[in-house]
Amino acid sequence: MFWPPSGNANSGFATIRLGDLFSCQTRLSIEIIFSLTLAISYEVSVHVLLRWVYVKRVYH
User: Fold this and answer.
1) Which terminus of the chain, N or C, has less C-beta within 10 A?
2) Residue 50 pLDDT greater than 70, yes or no
3) 3-state secondary structure of 3
4) How far apart are CA 33 and CA 25, in angstroms?
């Protein structure tokens, strides 16, 4: 059995390309999830802060 080196190189190259694409997509989705989490926590904290200020203003 003799494998041509070009076939091995091509299959290895395809595997590396697929792995790069997957890691890039994973990194992108992690960044999207992280920014969404930051945005949601920011919205919640601003909402809570505004409600706290409103309650203090009304009751004092």
Assistant:
1) N
2) yes
3) coil
4) 12
Q: How confident is the model at residue 19, as a pLDDT?
A: 65
CA distance 7 to 15: 12
Place of tokens 């076939």: 7
Tell me the average pLDDT across 56-60: 76
Q: Alpha-carbon distance 31 to 56, whole Å? A: 37
Report the C-alpha gap between 21 and 25 in whole angstroms. Answer: 6
In DSSP notation, 11-59 reads HHHHHHHHHHHHHHHHHHHHHHHHHHHHHHHHHHHHHHHHHHHHHHHHH
